[in-house]
Amino acid sequence: MQILKVISLLLDYPAQVVLEARDELAEAISTTRVISPEQRSALLALLSQVAERDLMDSQEAYVKLFNRGRHLSLLLFEHVHGESRDRGQAMVDLMAQYEKDGFDIGVKELPDYIPLYLEYLSYCDEPTARAGLADVEHLLALLAARLAEQDSAYSACFQALLQIAGFEPTQAINEVKEQVSQEEYDDSLEALDALWEEEAITFMGGNQSASCGSSGGKPVQVTPEAVAVPLHWLDFSRDASASTSSKM
Length: 248
Hints:
Layout: H1 2-11, H2 16-20, H3 22-31, H4 37-52, H5 55-66, H6 76-80, H7 85-100, H8 114-122, H9 126-134, H10 137-149, H11 155-164, H12 169-181, H13 189-197, H14 208-211
GO biological process, one term: nitrate assimilation
GO molecular function, one term: unfolded protein binding
InterPro entries: DMSO/NO3_reduct_chaperone, NO3_reductase_chaperone_NarJ, TorD-like_sf
């Protein structure tokens, strides 16, 4: 689904390519019919916010929002498994699914990075893509609610994903509102330092290091500067087979 490519770009670290493709992205949002007019307007508002800001300001705001602690992490398994050993196996399983479907991530990013997962789903057939989103519905609702609580325009991305998955966004958010209201969220530098002082778990095993873009047997280090935006994401007319070796 084309709209999943757009949302994956909006959720990724802000890059010049998004600013340059603003009109094309806006057209893709405006013409999609898999989300409501309300959701289309919210995504257009986010696009305008990112595109009209100075790029460095957008990047700074993005890092402050998504890269300070686990509360709003864009890594799926960060929320599901935390630092448990189950997270490593989940990574392996997801990479195996990508490889089975002929999807070569081709970037230095962990396989559960949400924008990357959305690109994968964008090349799947529609029922598979919707099911892939439905599988993480609770997490989508949590992130939508947490972002809405902070009055962040990025909440629009997760509300749109909920709708694509077949859920009513407002209802899904209301179901987790109480949980979110009771959460203690500390994004101070002191709390962040304490978080990074914890022992990091690595996900090395088999060929996973190569698949996840690491080298020399070293763990993947994810930083905002390392996030790459593949230019082919903007080519909405290209055949999915151009990036996958088999039909999904």
